[in-house]
Design brief:
Number of strands: 5
Largest sheet: 3 strands, antiparallel
Number of helices: 4
Distance between the termini: 24 Å
Helix content: 25-40%
């Protein structure tokens, strides 16, 4: 049986405790703590940082700031379309991949989960 969930209906939110900054130009930088055994080894022996600063540029920053726990992926897509027009095409394919990647790295989570 097919899964009848539509990804465009999903609503995402930023997890509590996620540290990020938004510059005056609208660029978002997310602070990601490097945890775990291998990261501890890398920090100790290879001088890797305890916190990485991940910069989301342009459209990625705009999308990240639109995520509020109320807007669906479809709604965010409409905002992206209004701001970026044809530059965002193929809009929903790109947006879906981007949202899944943000979820994978822990920058967003699905609301209600």
């Amino acid at each position: 049986m097919r899964n009848k969930d539509n990804f465009l209906d999903y609503v995402f939110e930023r997890p509590e405790g996620l540290v990020f900054n938004c510059s005056d130009e609208g660029e978002v930088t997310v602070d990601m703590e490097n945890k775990g055994f291998t990261n501890k080894i890398a920090q100790r022996f290879f001088k890797r940082p305890e916190v990485s600063h991940i910069k989301l540029e342009g459209m990625g920053s705009f999308i990240f700031m639109c995520i509020d726990g109320k807007r669906s992926v479809y709604d965010i897509g409409q905002l992206v379309k209004d701001k970026y027009g044809d530059e965002a095409e193929p809009l929903y394919e790109r947006l879906s991949v981007y949202m899944k990647k943000l979820e994978e790295v822990g920058f967003v989570k699905r609301s209600g989960t």
